[in-house]
Amino acid sequence: MESNLPKTTAYSAFVANRFDIGQWNITPIMRHEIIEAERTNRLTGQGGSTKVSKTMPGVGVTWNPGQALTVFSSLHKGFVPPRVEDLINNNATFTDVDPEESTHFELGLRSQPQPWASVQAAYFRNDYRNLVAVGSIAGSSTPLSQGKALFEGLELTAQADHRSGVFSRLAYTWLPTEEQKTAFRNVANQAIVGVAGNRQPYAPEHTLTAALGYGVGPFRGEIEAQYVGKQYSDFANTLAPTADGQKGEIAAYTAWNASLNYQLQPKTATLFLTAKNLTDKTYIVDRTRGIQVACRVWCGRASSTAFRSARRYVG
Fold first, then answer.
1. Cα angle 217-220-226, degrees, rounded to a multiple of 5
2. Within the chain, where are the H helices?
3. What are the helix (H) ranges across 73-184?
4. Among the ranges given (85-94, 104-113, 187-196, 238-247), the one the predictor scored with the smallest mean pLDDT
5. Is there a contact between 152 and 176 (Cβ–Cβ < 8 Å)?
């Protein structure tokens, strides 16, 4: 039995200015954050507190050579403090969890070739000086490990909403680099849980969401496909499933979804019906707590400023 009272107080300030130079916009920024964490065990009266702070510079740049094209780029430092429950345990003792520190860079372009169509593509590189990642928490194992990691890839999004009523959208991420630059270590006992050069768990190389729909009058319906590529579930990149379900490669899967919306008049309420996983396919989505599977979900709802209700069936 536990009864804990965690508290987090955060202070943040930033200074930024945009310089407009012809077709160029340059925006440097400086942020400073202070996070105070406290946790009290209300059963024993024991408690502990800590504070972390960080100053982070960054800069964003855009170039607009024409009305239909924008080239953009940014470079900034990232910082994420540990959660209170990860840093201070139930006995008011501290776990040596470092804050996440990273450098993020992106370079991309967005275009609107037609009034009803837009597209955006970007290269990104996220270099983590320290990344805190969760391993399996099944079987009372310690979940957190940390180390250096590199994420690098491409993102593509596109959207079209034609006057004929046909609309579509697409979002694709290619993540060829998801590397543990150093062997990740368990924060509790410093045991090595992976090998430098391995792929980070829960980081599929390919993810894709594509949808096609049609709208006429107050009706708008669409069908959607969500694809998630194969991925590892542990730092050691174990391929064969273990008997306890905590390790092993997670196979790629595709889920088909559909939705139907009806806009009531006047436009203060919408009725909608959503169906997830139309083919009722059972597939593994997570092994962090042992095998977690997906199932079919139907949702119906009427929403407005005056009335909200919902019903759900899980099969």
1. 165
2. 84-87
3. 84-87
4. 85-94
5. yes
* pTM of the complete model beyond 0.85: no
Summarised one tens digit per residue, pLDDT across range 69-102 is: 999 999 999 998 877 766 666 565 556 678 899 9
**CB contact at 8 A, 47 and 39:** yes
Give the residue from 299, 237, 305, 251 showing the smallest Cα distance to 272: 299
**Across the chain, what does the average pLDDT equal?**
85
Q: Do the strands 292-293 and 284-286 form a parallel or antiparallel pair, or are they unpaired?
A: antiparallel
Annotate 52-71 with DSSP letters as a single string.
Answer: EEEEEEEEEEEEEEETTEEE
List, in order, residues 6 or more apart from 258 with CB less than 8 Å away.
Answer: 221, 222, 223, 224, 274, 275, 278
Q: Is 80 exposed, middle or buried (0-12, 13-18, 19+ CB in 10 A)?
A: middle
Bond prior to 266 in cis (omega within 30° of 0): yes
